[in-house]
Every structure is written in structure tokens, then in C-alpha cells.
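Q: Entry one of two.
A:
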Amino acid sequence: MKDLLIAAQNYVGIPWKESFGDTLEGMDCYSFARYFLAQECGIVLPRYRYVVKGCLSVHKEIMSKIAEVVSPVSIDLKRPSDIVLMRYENLDCHIAVYLGHDKIIHCDEPESAILNFSDMLHLVKVAHRIQGFYRCK
């Protein structure tokens, strides 16, 4: 597999836009992860229909579609292209892609960015949100 950290440099700075779809003009976190994995890894995540921001049924739909194509992975066994799922107020609501080299890429307001995963584990406001790692089946 190619070095995803190098490839990810081409995706930094894509604006976050609410359910904007698969365009470099802007994407939500799921659309961004879906686009990145398809372009760089050949991994296809299912599409979802967007209804209303924060709508519980939409989040459940997204998570049920993801559950069809991924399996949980221990944090000790994570590898590049694994999905990182995060929670907010007991709702699985944010998705990122593990790049290897202790880095993730995600799209959040205002734009996509590469973050140090270990730094996130030490931030009280973020560490408890990490739901786990998942790998495409």
C-alpha cells in the first residue's frame, strides 16, 4: 500500500461543508473519508442520503451502512486506511482515516487537516470521543 501520509497532503485544506457530497469544493466528514479512501485505497464506502443536520435517523443510517462494510479493530492493530470513529453526546458522528505514522486525516470545520493521533488521546475533550478503529471487510 502506498504511503497515505504523503498522499494525504493533497487533501489538506478542503473546506468542510454540510453534506456537500464528493467534490473538492467542500465535504462533510463522511463524504471526505469516503472520497479519500476511494481515491487513495480503492475502498468504497456506501453513500447515504442526507436529511437534516444532527438528525438521529441520518446518523443511524450512516452507521448501519458503515457496519455492513467494516469490522472493529484493536487500537494496537490499527493500520493505514482504517477508519476512526468518534462520538459526540453518545452519537457516532465523526469519521476520520488513519494514515499511519501516528496521523489521521479528517474534515471538520473549517477544513480538512492532518492530526497527530497520540496528541488526541491526551486531550480530555477529545480522548473520550474516540469510539474505535474499523477496517473494511
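Q: Entry two of two.
A:
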Amino acid sequence: MEEYSELRDLLEIDSPVGYTAKASAYVFDLLQTLGLRPTLTNKGVVKCPLGPKPILGLVAHVDTLGLIVSSIKADGTLAFSSLGSPSLSSSEGEYVRIITQSGIEYTGTLLLNNPSAHANAEREKQERKYETMHIRIDAEVFSRADVEALGIRNGDIVCFEPRFRECGGYLKGRFMDNKAGCYVILEVAKRLRKQRKKAPVELFFSNHEEVGHGGAVGYAPSIRELLVIDMGVVGAGCDGREVSCSICAKDSSGPYDFEFRKTLTLLAEKNNVPFTVDVYPFYGSDGSVALRAGMMFELLSSDLAWPQVMAWNAPIERVSRRLFSFASRTSGPCLNLCFPQRSKQVQRERIDPRLTTLSRSCHIQNLNIIRFDKASHSFCRPHQRVQVISNIAVIGIR
């Protein structure tokens, strides 16, 4: 298990979205030990170039799902809200850690209200939702005052046990999404350093993917393409399997870049990497938020099965190999953004300032903004030039 010790260490660091500083610090320190020069953005993102003027960004997220204390109930149990979108039905009975503002940690259990089948004949029929569940603290507390005396307050972070296991060649854990993805791009950095090679690549460890804005901004100004590593999907209607990589052609945010996807499939075939191409009906990633920010992207995945997310060491190795072979690829063309023409007042007061502000915050490649006049069915002249990424790809870990 020594080969994957860094993955185990990263999995065992609590990092629900909003509480990722320790995980980011671990990644930062690991990159420094490789002789690289990572930086930390004001948002908490770890960035690290693997060569001068990077044009390709490799993206993975350190944040995971979790909970947050929303109120202390009169009986000494805790009401909670979600951090991301954890499945309550699969989380019932899970052990949790409650982290207070002062840094003191308490343990507890996520339970259904009135959970005993010996006292609640309707237990199996009840819907698992925030109003019907609570966190029981592992302490003798029977009132709100008892809980407050421990130092627990609204807003305290609640972390699920990671439950990392190695089982017959499989690596299992609750948060392989997306600690396995982080491990993969760290492995790319390690192999390049071992071979004393540089590549026009920037590693980007986002920390707000689970709430939809992790990969929106912060890339190096020279970045033109993104390759996002995230969990893949194993389920009905998908070809993905636990023993292969998955390339997503489309998810809930729309289709990914066709040419980028084609390049990934050709690389997989050339390097004998087992893969599938899938459409994910209910899925989003850092690539999704990048698309909304005006970028084009593709999703490559290594599949994870829920609720206990599982990845096999072979697919992780295969994703690492594919990324390594992709690191020196050149960038694609710039992108034209087209949207219906509106009144000049609306353009001036709403659309242009938002696009300009967004593009400047992204610090990336040029884009033509072109308006389409519905009345004449013709394109207007390019109105202005702003900065966006032209191609993005997303990879998930099975």
C-alpha cells in the first residue's frame, strides 16, 4: 500500500467544501517537496506550473461533501444543512466528526428521528431528509445548554468518516471523489520531475467544486485549455465501468468540446488505455462552471460507484498515463461567443459589463463576442474582445 500512501493521507484529511485549508496545505507541501513552486490564491486554490507559460490546465478538486450545524435542538441533538449534496439515505448511521470554531472535535452519528424499529413501526417508510434526521453527539447532552457548554455552535463543520480501505486490489473510500483525481495529477507532476522534464501545464486544485464555483477563475493568463479530472459514472444507461477510464461527451451542463474529446480518445487508443465514452444525465464538475464562464471543455472520467465510492488502482494508473501523454499537446483555436441581439440599453447595462468583468477575472485567452440579430437572421460585427479559455476537458476517476 506504500505506492498509494499519499492518496490515503489525502483521503484521511477532512475537507468538506468550506473547510479545505488542511487538504490544500497538504497538496501545497507535497508539491514543494518535489521542488516545484506552487502558489495559493486568495480563494484557497493551489496552483502549480510544471513549465513556463502553461497552456494546458489539469484540474481536480480537494473539497468533498459534508454537513454543517444549522441549529441545536432542545433535546441536545443537532439539526444540519448540507455542504454539497450528500445522499442522506446512504449516509444514515454514518459516524461523523463535529469541528468547532475553537478547533475542538466531537464525534457523533447521523440518525433518523425516532430511529429504533422497536419504537417506530413507520421507520422504513419515512423519507430521509433534513427535517426527519439529526446528529447525535457522543456526549452526555440532553439540552441546548448542554451542547453549548461543549462549545458547539451553529456553523460548525460536520465531516463524514472517510472509511478508506484496500480490498483485493481495490481502493475504497467515501471521498475518492475527488481525492483520487488529485492523486492522479500529483502523479503527473512526480513523473515529470523524476524524468527531469518540463511541460506547458498548470496543476489547479480547486476547493469549491461541490457547490458549483470551484473552477471558475484563477488560471494562469497563458492557459488555453483545461483538462478536468473528476469522478465518472457507473449506472444504468452508461457504459462506464470500475476498470476503465470514461470520457464524457455531454452532461447536464451541455456537450463538451468535440475536438478535445477526439484527441483524448485517440490518445487512449494509441496508449492502450481502456476507456468508454458516455453521456451523464445528472452531472456537473469544475468543467461545468468553466463552461458557464465562457469556456469549452471535455470530461474524462475514471468511474466511481455510489454510495461507497470505489476506484481501482489500475484505472488510476491508466488516467495518470493518459494525462502524462497529453501534457505536451498544443492548444486549440479561440472561441466565438454568439447570443441574440438585444436592445442597446440592455446590452450596455447588463450583458457587456458582466462579460467583461467575468473575462477579466478569468485572465485567459481571447474571445469574440458576436450578436445574432433575429430579425435579419444575420451576425452583427464583433463587439469587443474579452478573455476566455478555448478548450476544456474533464476526466473522472473510476
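A: Comment on entry two: The chain is about 25% helix and 30% strand. The two ends are 19 Å apart (CA to CA).
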